[in-house]
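I hope you will forgive my troubling you with a question about protein structure. I set the record out below, with my sincere thanks for your time.
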Amino acid sequence: MTLVHVAVERSSRTVMERTEKIESFLNKIKEIYGSTLSEKIIFDIRTKPYPSFRINTIKGESVKVLRELKDLGFEIESGGLPNSYYIKNFSENISLSRTEVFDNDEIYIQNFSSMIPALVLDPKPGENVLDLCAAPGSKTTHIATLSCSQAHITAVENNSNRFNALKRNVEAQGVAGVSFIRESGQRLFLSHPQYVNYFDKILCDVPCSNEGLIRDLDSQDFSFWNIKSARKLSVLQKKLISSAITMLKDGGTLVYSTCTYSVEENEQVIDWVLKKFPYMRVQKIELEGIPVFSGLASWRGKSLNHDVEMSVRILPDNIYEAFFIAKLVKMRV
């Protein structure tokens, strides 16, 4: 066989493998959401979402920031979340990252779905708040702005490069008083036993298979997708949320979130929590004007705890990316 024939055969095999991979991914969405809704989701993930941002109220004044962006030609629409907007006329020639308000850290570019976990957590002044998987700092800084910079925030990251990026990002946003800890979230309560039953609120936005970020099945992002990743990652996710529960005080609130579709990383993790920690209770999440789908009550013929239905799946569209969010309260007395 000539080298040309070998190259052609390899190329053909690669195309076939990629076609099978795409089919597996789309079938997964259909299995989760059903035929009608999945058609819309599959259509929407092929559409590039509008760029979105929130105003960093620590550094920027909303009226001033919006006026400056509009003067530059941006067509701005409110996304319905506090101090958050999206750009309708985006192009390569008009970019938020090339503006003075971005350079001055008066805005933070972030998808709307990624803003919701901190909003659900609802941090208040004076509360001890833990961001367990904090890098790159988008949710840490959001927690700070929502609490008017008066919550006592502890931000944790294990990877050295991500840890340094987290610190730089938080400091650039003008957030002061954050305690940074370079440590594995799985063992934080062991290395810092003072944190056992300590935090009023904990955000557990865990590492996941990132399926919700896939918007183009022909992109490099999709090439890394593996149908086996979800089961492997769920082991880590259970360890992280277990650690978080250990550090949550009685009566405290924990928000668990991912940016993925996989039931193994979402509803099944919450179902596992409710079995292992019977004093944890799922709270209903009310999100008006946001495309949501209730948490699944069963998966592949196996029933889950019915309270899992109170978790929510954010559906992807031209503004939102796919996300899963569950709110839990520690009711042990």
